Structures are given as C-alpha cells and as structure tokens.
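Researcher: Batch entry, complex prediction.
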Amino acid sequence: MLSQSALSARAARQPVAGQPVPGQPVPSEPVPSDLPAMTESVATVEQRYDRAGLWVAIVVTFGWYLAGVAPIVVDSWLRYGLNASDAVTWLLFAVLGVVAAVVVLRGGGRGPALPLVICPILLAGSVLGSLVSPDGVLGHFDWPFTMVGWFAVLALWRRRLPGLIAFYAANVMASGVILATLGEASRVNVGRFIALCCGISALQITVFCGSRMVTAMARRGAEAADELARTRSMNIAAEVVQAARRSRYETITGTVAHLLDGLAGGQLDLTDRAVRQEVAVAVTRLRRYLVESDEVPDQLWHELQVCADAAERQGIAVDLVAPAGLIPTMPVDVRRALTEPIIAALAATATKARITVVASPGEVVVAILADARLDAPPPSLHGAVESSHDAEGEMLWLQARWIGPSASPS
Amino acid sequence: MASSPLDRPIRIALIEDTDVVVEGVRAWLAADPQGRVVIVAAGDSIEAVLTGPGESADVVVLDLELDGTMVTDRVAELSDLGYRVVVFSVHVKPLVVQAVMNAGACAFLDKRTEREQFVDTVVAVAQDWPYVTPSMAGGLLQGVQLSDRERQALQYLFQGMDRDSIARRLRKPDGQPLSATTVKTYIERARAKFAAVGRPCRSNYALLARCVEDGLIRPEQVDDYRPGTA
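Model: Structure tokens for the complex:
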C-alpha cells in the first residue's frame, strides 16, 4: 500500500485536476481566477526608457544643430566665404552625429570602437574651429567648441560617465591652450571661458545622467513588479498543488479506505466473488490514478496498458490490441470515463479478455470482449461518454464511446 | 502457380523461422477433419521455400519477421510474382496490417489466432474470397471510405465479435437484427474497396473480379479495374 507521502510526492510532480470518486460528478480542473497579468520583462522596460532618453538627446542635438548652428555657418559663409565658414566641419559633424545616433539606436556603441572613431574627429574639429574662427576663440563663429559635447553624448551614450567627462576635459584643455597661446587669455575672456565651459557641459551631463537614472529607476520598478508577479504565481501554484494533493488523497482514500476497514474488521470476506471484484477494481483504479499525470504521448493507451497489466497480474490473459486510428488528446475525466467500464469488466473476467480501441479525431471507442460475469456495468462518469454492453453466453461485450465536440453522433 | 484449387487440397508454402510454429501449423492442418490444406514446403527464408516445391503453392503463408529481420517490404514482391500471400505474424498493429495489405497481401493472421480461423482464412484466400480477420479489420477501418454499416461491422469484428454477434447488434431500421450473411457482405465489400485502392497485384485483381461477379461492388467503383487480368 502506498503511503500518503508517496502519493503526495507524485501529486506534487504535476498539479492536475482534482481526483473525483468514480460515480460522482467529476470536478473541472482548478483554474486560478486571479492569475497575475503578464508583466513586461525587466529588459524590455529598461530598453524602452533608455531609448526615450536617447531620443531626447538626439532631438536636442540635431534641433540645436539645425536651428542654432546652421544659421551661424550660413552667416559665416556669406561674410567670409566658403573656406572660412566651417561648412565642411558642419557637414562632417552632421554625418558623424547621424552615424552615432543610428548605431546607438540599434543597440550598438557598447564597445570602444564608436567613441574611438568619432571623438578624436570631434576634438580636431573643435580645435580647428577655434583656430580659424574669424572672430577668435570663444567668438560667435567658434561654434564647434560648444557643439561637440552634444555629439559626444551620442557617441558615448552606451559608455560610462567618466568617458564623457574625459572628452569634455580634453575639449576644454585644448581650447584653453589655444586661448593662452593666441594671447587672448584676458581676465574677461578667462571668465567667459569658464562660464562657457560650465554651460556647454552641464546640460549634456544632465541629459546623460538623467536618462541613466530614470532608466535605472524604471528597471528597479520592473524588477519589483516581476518579483511580485513571481511570488503571486508561486502562491497560486502552491495552492493548486495543495488542492490537487488533497483531492487525490481524498479520492484514493474513498477508493480503498472502506475496503481496508472492511477487511481489517472482518466484515468483508475475500472468498466472496463480489468482494474480490471490488478489490480488483480498487487496485486497478489506484494504478490508473498513479499514471494519469504521466507525460506520455498517448495517455488513454498508457492507462489501458496499466489496467491490462493489473488484470494480467491476477492471471487473466489480456489481449490489448494496438489502437486502430490515432487517439486524440482528451481531458482526464473523459479518459477516466472510458477506462472505468473496462476496469469493471476486467475485475469480473474469469480467464481472457480482448481490449480494443478504435479512434478518429472526434470519436474514441474502447471495447472489451471477455468471459466475464458483470451484473451491472458502472454508469458513465461523463456526459460525452456513452457505454453499452451485451452478454452472450459467458462472453461479455462492453463498449465505452466518446463523441468529441466536433463530431456529430452517428 | 496460384491456380484456383477447388477439387484438391490447397497447397501452402510456409515461410517461418520458428520450428515450433511450423510444427504447430502442421498439427492444425492435420487436425482439420476435411484435410483441406497441406504444406508443400516450409523453411525460414523466402528463397529457400519458393525455389522448390513451394513455387507451385496456392498460398504463401509468410511470417513478417524472419531471423530478426522484418520482411514487410518483400510482400509487394511476392504479390507481383502472383502469389497469394497470407501474413502470419505477431506484429498486429493496424498500421502494419494496413501496410502489408496495401502491398498486396490477401490476408493477415494474428499468430494468436485459432486453428479453425487459420484454415478458413487460407481456404478463402486460395479461392479469392475477400476474407477479413479481426486483425485486418483494424487496418481496414483506417484504409478506405466506408459506409456507416461497413465501418460498424468492421469495428465489431475488430473488437472480437463473430458474425452472428455482429448481426445481432446491427439492427435494421425496423429493429430486426441483420442476417449473418448481410454482415458478411458488409465486411467483404469493405475488403473489396480496400483491394481496389491497394497495390494492383494479381491477387487483388482476382479478388476484385470475384467481388464484381458476385455484385459486392460495381466495376465503376474500381478506377483501374481490368477484368481481363483476373
């Protein structure tokens, strides 16, 4: 006899429907009604917020480049001609900005390649801009010095903050050296230079760091929601497992407890044919319960094999014929309704039985032909399963037929 | 080879690698009161049996597994040579049965069959009767388009009922049971339909011709039926 713990362990392996006592209505499989809604994955949330921050940086960069810088370049061109206008630098920066934006939008730029290609060109452009600016360093036309920081934000978007700060430091130092070298480091210019340095880096660093912070907060929120959903799922699963265990235990108790009590108390006599049949039914039913949750391709056939095996252990020659047709997938209560009459017939069989299955997508017919004496076959356990039987001499023919929802009964 | 034996014992060639089965079949045939069937050759390989006296056998009884090797693919070859093949095997899965029937076998016998059914099957096959065993019923159920009655009759046969029991369960619209002869007609018609869609071998042509002559099926039901070849 199996212990409760062994049965529970088996039940825990796969939470399944409650196990009803044959003859009683079969409860439907427990479906938790308060399953948590699907939560967005943490990575998806993080990616979404990161892209939002990136788009802000792109829009600001190109918006300013077109609205703020482009008129300066045109003005310079008109005043001083093409060679002194920085138009080529403007075009080069635009191309570099587009390349950087496309790469980081596609998730790239995590390695050093993108910054190593773009940042030196930006710095060179900044230095060149300061040197050729018609109105000198920090003048109206020295726009590259103030603009390269935004393009650096794009190129270094996937890199750490120190990289961006290092770029700003290099840009500031280069311009500072030029300022000093050209003898324009007057007190006023140095003051302007310091104010300009703060002005051109603070906003970019704010966008860069702000986006990181918002993304991190979103990630933590998503992680918390994910953890909550996981906890709720585990709770619900644990409740389902517990219900399945309890139901299975109650079913098995209902199947065998009264027999064990009767045998132990001496009220049941094993020499009585009816008692022996009842015991045989209980034993076979128990064996079927134990395999109902097995993960096999053809569960009905698997359960019939177990029933046949149980009968053969009692000395009955069982001819379980390979099924004609492919057996469709059926719920456990339907399979139970199909096998229950077979179990009853096998328990009443004297020496030999032939079990057959004829299946089509919408119909399954399980039949037994045996030298059995069965006064009253069990009633059908399922509304979609009809059973019929006939006796001819010593031979009993019994059939259980399931009509699927898609098939019309003939 | 494969003439129509009626006034003499039917000669069978038994291809079987298990001595005890060969001896069992000999005992069965000896126990038949009318002595309807005799073994003219027996052995454990197709070549050995059919190159000797077995070549003139009316029916070849073939075990599907010889020395551990499945010879399912040889059924078509034997059918094409004009032999009436009865497969005698433990491999009774309906799909296996269907495959060998499609390959032109005339009948399929489960090795767990009883003596009388073995002899009856061989006699029916030797005379090109559309005989159907319970094992074959499982294969036929999946093979062709059947009427409800034909399908029902085959299903009961597959379940193990005899024709009288099937007739009792298949009732007419007025509630009266069918006759066993009508049940036989349903089953034979199903067999003929299967032969019509199976391998166009000599034994199937003979069977189809017989069924058309007897009115079991109509010639137009057989797309490639050619009476002259029967």
